[in-house]
């Protein structure tokens, strides 16, 4: 299941930071993010960030981070050249970043693994409960079709550009109950993926957005 954490859960996030280092530095070769302590952490791991983790047998095997677009985020500050239109901003739009799944819990090819399904379902469940209906994503263009197949309504924000040797495109992906129904159908159940504690916490995290405008 998916746990929602904030910086107040600092100790619980340590394993997630190490998973991020394993995936983005050790596997993908993003050496600018390398740290001697093997923790991948950046300026956006702040009080505004919402962290979602997935565990198997007590170990963190999946992770993603949500950033409010009403605060500085990757597209607005670091990757702004990817956007050629007015940047989507608002309480209903968050940026999806640092998505990763442990090697041991991935599926071959482009099939969505159970962990990946839970992570995506977690975004949609959390968003639908809190007035969030769109996510900004910077990703490889090959995943555009995959998102459409999952019933996300995807709009590119610019053309793909090369970043660290990879083609990257920025998109805004809108979701609704049809997205959740597709993800539920793929995994074969309609139960919530959020832990009981996270269900209560989600609204607390998302509610104070009006105070976050800069």
What is the architecture at the second tier of CATH? 3-Layer(aba) Sandwich
- Would you identify the CATH H-level superfamily? Gcn5-related N-acetyltransferase (GNAT)
Give the % helix: 25-40%
Provide the gyration radius in Å: 16 Å
Beta-strand level of the residues, as a percent range? 15-25%
CATH class: Alpha Beta
Number of helices: 6
Helices and strands, in order, run as EHEEHEHEHEEEHH
Oligomer: single chain
Kindly identify the CATH topology: Aminopeptidase
Number of strands: 8
Distance between the termini: 34 Å
Largest sheet: 8 strands, mixed
Give a short summary of the structure.
This protein is 31% helix and 24% strand. The protein is built from six helices and eight strands; from the N terminus they run βαββαβαβαβββαα. Strands 1, 2, 3, 4, 5, 6, 7 and 8 form an eight-stranded mixed β-sheet that branches.
Give a description of the structure.
The chain is an alpha+beta fold and 214 residues long. It has a single domain, classed as Gcn5-related N-acetyltransferase (GNAT) (Aminopeptidase). Helix content is 31%, strand content 24%. It is built from 6 helices and 8 strands, in the order βαββαβαβαβββαα. The chain has helices spanning 10-27, 74-77, 114-129, 143-149, 177-187, 196-206; strands at 2-5, 50-56, 59-68, 93-101, 134-139, 153-156, 161-163, 166-174. Strands 1, 2, 3, 4, 5, 6, 7 and 8 form an 8-stranded mixed beta sheet that branches. Helix 3 runs antiparallel to helix 5 (177-187). The longest helix has 18 residues, at 10-27. It is globular. The model is unreliable at 207-214 (pLDDT under 50).
């Amino acid at each position: 299941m998916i746990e929602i954490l904030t910086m107040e859960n600092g100790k619980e996030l340590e394993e997630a930071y190490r998973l991020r280092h394993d995936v983005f530095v050790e596997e993908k070769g993003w050496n600018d993010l390398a740290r001697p302590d093997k923790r991948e952490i950046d300026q956006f791991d702040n009080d505004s960030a919402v962290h979602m983790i997935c565990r198997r047998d007590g170990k963190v095997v999946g992770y993603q981070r949500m950033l409010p677009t009403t605060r500085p985020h990757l597209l607005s500050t670091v990757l702004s050249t990817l956007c050629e239109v007015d940047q989507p901003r608002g309480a209903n739009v968050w940026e999806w970043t640092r998505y990763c799944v442990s090697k041991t819990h991935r599926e071959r090819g482009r099939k969505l693994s159970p962990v990946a399904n839970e992570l995506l379902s977690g975004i949609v469940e959390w968003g639908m409960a809190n007035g969030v209906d769109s996510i900004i994503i910077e990703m490889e263009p090959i995943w555009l079709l995959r998102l459409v197949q999952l019933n996300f309504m995807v709009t590119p924000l610019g053309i793909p550009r090369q970043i660290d040797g990879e083609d990257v495109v920025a998109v805004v992906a809108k979701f609704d109950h049809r997205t959740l129904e597709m993800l539920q159908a793929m995994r074969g159940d309609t139960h919530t993926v959020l832990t009981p504690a996270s269900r209560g916490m989600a609204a607390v995290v998302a509610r104070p957005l009006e105070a976050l405008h800069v």
